[in-house]
Amino acid sequence: MIEAFSRLREATHSLVIVGDGPCKEALVEQARQLGVLDRTTFTATTVDVASWYRRIDVFVLPSINESFSNSLMEAMACGCAVLASNVGGNPELVVHGDNGLIFEPGDAAGLAVELEAVLGNAALRHRLAAAATRTIEDGYTRERSAQRFGELYGRMLS
């Protein structure tokens, strides 16, 4: 993510990385070496992630390994335009060009292209964000999940 961010042509954007962990110092050093530390904010893990989602324009999940991401669903539900790596359950949630953008894991250049597209086009960003929210509202609410589990159990019992 940091490498892709450093490749953006326009230097007016900011990057926020939420969460602490054993890689934080290495990430800070990477941001420093790539010349984007002054535009990158590292903030501690928080239980109030929704407030962060509501303050950002674009959420990126650059995982190289992922199952079915709660953070991706939360960002979509909060109205973020989302970019997600093509791993695990991400392509089940994100349909490229419809409700978000998909990029290949580990491909900083490809992610930078997708970031440029969404950051440089407010209409695209808003359309993707609205579709992402609809995706969650239509298919991933507690009620819809309970209904699908009930249908699954019903089929299994038959």
What topology emerges from the helices and strands here?
Layout: H1 2-6, E1 15-18, H2 24-33, E2 40-43, H3 49-55, E3 58-61, H4 70-77, E4 81-85, H5 90-93, E5 101-103, H6 108-119, H7 122-139, H8 142-157
Parallel strand pairs: 1-2, 3-4, 4-5
Beginning-to-end CA distance, first to last residue: 47 Å
CATH class: Alpha Beta
Radius of gyration: 17 Å
Here the CATH topology equals: Rossmann fold
- What is the count of DSSP helices, taking H or I runs of 4+ residues? 8
Brief overview:
The protein is of the alpha/beta class.
Report what the structure shows.
- The protein is α/β, with parallel strands linked by helices.
- It is 51% helix and 13% strand.
- It has one domain: 3-Layer(aba) Sandwich (Rossmann fold).
- It has 8 helices and 5 strands, in the order H-E-H-E-H-E-H-E-H-E-H-H-H.
- The strands form 2 sheets. The chain has a 3-stranded parallel β-sheet, sandwiched between helices.
- Strand 1, helix 2 and strand 2 form a beta-alpha-beta unit.
- The termini are far apart.
- The relative contact order is 0.13.
- The mean pLDDT is 94.
Notable traits:
two-stranded parallel sheet, three-stranded parallel β-sheet, alpha/beta, 51% helix, Rossmann fold, 158 residues, 8 helices
